[in-house]
Amino acid sequence: MLCVGLDPEPSRFPASYKNDTSRIYDFCARIVDATADVCMAFKPQIAYFAAHRAEDQLEKLMQHMRKTAPQVPVILDAKRGDIGSTAAQYAIEAFERYGADAVTLSPFMGFDSIEPYLKYHNKGAFLLCRTSNPGGDDLQTQRLSSVDGSPLLYEHVAKLAQGPWNLNGQLGLVVGATYPAEIERVRQIAPTLPLLIPGVGAQGGDAVATVRSGWRPNAPIIVNSSRAILYASSDELFANAARLAAIQTRDSLNAAKQ
């Protein structure tokens, strides 16, 4: 169930890499090599590369992952949310330029912001539903009084993703680990969709509560941990420390299924 998030911050790199933006690929590739056999997905966050003009390093990293760990899907965390021809360009970016297996999207401009991605029938999209940040309450827990049953907004998103929007079975949902009750509610509404669950580790989400709320034998969850794994150590053995942290997280997730 473990997904390793790749959010490279050069200021947190070990001494030999520290503050050197040209070493972003080197740092991430070592994390990938150390954890590929203990995780089910990688999730590079595009902003951490783009902010340092390191998109070329992200392309190189994607190629490295496909070559050395082809069994591990890659979710590009981009949270795109535009429409029409712009959305089509973002889909090209995610699936053709970077070769991602899936992408995260914001659904709040409606289905026409999702549809261009679904034309790639062998790819997936995870829609923001109930996010892990406190500010998510500003919109996601507001009640939609004009819709049958007056659901909360995040519940309505889950219903659309499970039903009419999921034309080819390509959709999943993003639900934060900091809200286990909402994970369980989303699972009730969307009993078969894969859930991408960030927030375990540095953000304080509880692994046991997450698994018990969202995992079902026929409904996978993808539990992301980034900083707790990437920065498990600041010394030159950082990759070994990352591996140990990944194994510990994986084992705690598996144990919670019992």
Overall description:
- With 258 residues, this protein is of the alpha/beta class.
- The protein has a single domain (2-255), classed as Aldolase class I (TIM Barrel).
- The chain has helices at 24-35, 46-50, 55-68, 84-97, 115-118, 153-162, 180-189, 207-214, 227-230, 238-255; strands at 2-6, 41-44, 75-80, 102-105, 124-130, 171-175, 195-197, 221-225.
- The chain has an eight-stranded parallel beta sheet with strand order 2-1-8-7-6-5-4-3.
- Strand 1, helix 1 (24-35) and strand 2 (41-44) form a beta-alpha-beta unit.
- The longest helix has 18 residues, at 238-255.
- The protein is globular.
- The two termini are 14 Å apart.
- The model has no long low-confidence stretch (mean pLDDT 92).
Provide the descriptors you would attach to this structure in a database record.
single chain, 258 residues, alpha/beta, TIM Barrel, eight-stranded parallel sheet, 10 helices, globular
Computed structural class: alpha/beta
Give the total of domains.
1
Number of strands: 8
Query: Which fold name fills CATH's third level, the topology?
Result: TIM Barrel
Query: Percentage of helical residues?
Result: 25-40%
Gross morphology: globular
Helix count?
A: 10
Distance between the termini: 14 Å
Return the average pLDDT rounded to an integer: 92
User: Which superfamily, in CATH terms, is the homologous superfamily?
Assistant: Aldolase class I
Q: Strand order across the biggest sheet?
A: 2-1-8-7-6-5-4-3
Q: Name the helix and strand elements from N-terminus to C-terminus, one letter apiece.
A: EHEHHEHEHEHEHEHEHH
CATH architecture: Alpha-Beta Barrel
